[in-house]
Amino acid sequence: MAKKRKYQKTKELIGIALREGLTQEYIGNLCRVSQGQVSKWKSGTAFANVDQVKPLLDRFGHLIRHSPFKVYQFQSESGDMSFLKVEGRLLLREKFKAIAQGGPVEPPMPATTCIRISIHRQNDGRYALVFERTTAPAPTKNSGNEITLNDRHAEWIGFPPNGDDVRVQSVNDGQLMGVAKKLYKLSKQHKWWCQFQGLLALPLMTAEALSRQGVILDVVEVIKLTE
Predict the structure, then answer these.
(1) What is the pLDDT of residues 54-113, one digit of tens each?
(2) Range(s) of the domain holding residue 74
(3) What's the CATH code of the domain at 34?
(4) Residue 130 in 3-state DSSP?
(5) What does 82-129 look like in DSSP terms, one character per residue?
């Protein structure tokens, strides 16, 4: 039997319904639950199933504050496309252009010209980390930009950097810095990753982005203004 999906914004939805003039008793009748259950939803001690609060969503769903998000495209080995919506404010998004190396390169993916790393800030000190690649031709000097690719002309395909099936990594701030440092090392010494020398700056960019969010990092020494 399929597990029923919980509606994570239950408390907010009940609050809106009450402010719009509905009573807890009316909400209970509408959602076919007891008034005591509605009280639990109101206090946030319980989540409703999506199908339970569908009548409320039909009436008040447009008033819900939606979290910022981005949609990512992934492609399986068979060529099938899938899309993943990742919620959370975008903390950092950077592109890293491939630079040809002197020796032979053994890429795990065909002709990748650029990778893009996105970091979303989520709840409870967690961050969603997404990796994408593109094989789009890099702009030339004549096109006015030889540093980065134009997103409108690039097909970005998500990929798991560890070679497994995990499309999005969920990490805390310490783990996030660990990933940035790992990519720094890989960009200096490991086959395919060493094509993306811009990753040398990723630890600095990540530390600065986290610091701007008020995150205190052990690896960052703070020199405060003198009074």
Answers:
(1) 999 999 998 888 889 999 999 887 889 999 999 999 999 999 988 865 444 555 555 888
(2) 69-212
(3) 1.10.260.40
(4) strand
(5) EEEEEESEEEEEEEEE----SS----SSTT--EEEEEEEE-STTEEEE
